[in-house]
């Protein structure tokens, strides 16, 4: 995408992964529970971030969104169904999935950035974004919390361990 406007960002490929990845992608996935919850929560954040670009002013990005969103929805669906399946396996399975949920929930909420971002309004003005970070995060919470509860799991504390409020 950057190449379309004459910006060379190939230097990024020479950076170690630790410098390139968002914090959520630095989390270690050690278990099937982590893998499931990552898809359920983190890939859903990806969908939210991509939705910001629907009908944005940058037409090449708008053109590729349907394919990318479809793929993200596959990840989200798989993660959600596996999370529910593992939560339904009883005490030990439910406890493990709850631990993963508590870990990844915090990371998911932080992926929306700072609630009082100074860039939000510029991006909205330029037509590159539709919602503020706080609005998108709240919509996400409103969507995932009922799903978590329906699985018989406890919604983690939305402030515990957060970096970006």
Overview of the molecule:
With 165 residues, the protein is mainly α. The chain has a single domain (29-150), classed as Ferritin (Up-down Bundle). The chain has 6 helices and no strands. It has helices at 17-20, 32-51, 59-87, 91-110, 120-125, 133-150. Helix 2 runs parallel beside helix 4. The model has no long low-confidence stretch (mean pLDDT 87).
Structure at a glance:
The chain has helices at residues 17-20, 32-51, 59-87, 91-110, 120-125, 133-150.
Helix content: 55-70%
- The average pLDDT is 87
Second rung of CATH, namely the architecture = Up-down Bundle
Number of domains: 1
- CATH domain class: Mainly Alpha
Beta strand count: 0
Give the H and E element order.
HHHHHH
Major sheet details = none
Shape descriptor reads globular
User: What proportion strand?
Assistant: under 5%
* Structural class by helix and strand composition: mainly alpha
What assembly state would you assign to the polypeptide chains in this entry? Answer: single chain
CATH topology name, in short, is: Ferritin
The rounded distance between the terminal residues' Cα atoms is: 30 Å
Radius of gyration: 17 Å
Features:
globular; about 160 residues; mainly alpha; Ferritin
Q: What layout of secondary structure does this protein have?
A:
Layout: H1 17-20, H2 32-51, H3 59-87, H4 91-110, H5 120-125, H6 133-150
């Amino acid at each position: 995408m950057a190449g379309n406007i004459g910006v060379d960002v190939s230097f990024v490929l020479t950076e170690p992964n630790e410098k390139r990845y968002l914090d959520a992608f630095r989390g270690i996935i050690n278990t099937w529970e982590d893998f499931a919850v990552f898809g359920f929560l983190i890939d859903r954040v990806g969908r939210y971030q991509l939705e910001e670009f629907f009908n944005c002013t940058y037409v090449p990005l708008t053109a590729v969104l349907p394919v990318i969103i479809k793929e993200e929805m596959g990840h989200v669906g798989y993660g959600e169904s596996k999370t529910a399946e593992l939560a339904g396996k009883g005490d030990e399975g439910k406890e493990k999935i709850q631990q993963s949920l508590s870990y990844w929930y915090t990371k998911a909420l932080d992926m929306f950035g700072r609630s009082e971002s100074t860039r939000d309004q510029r991006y909205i003005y330029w037509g590159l974004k539709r919602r503020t970070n706080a609005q998108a995060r709240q919509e996400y919470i409103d969507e995932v919390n009922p799903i978590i509860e329906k699985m018989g799991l406890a919604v983690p504390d939305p402030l515990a361990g957060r970096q970006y409020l």
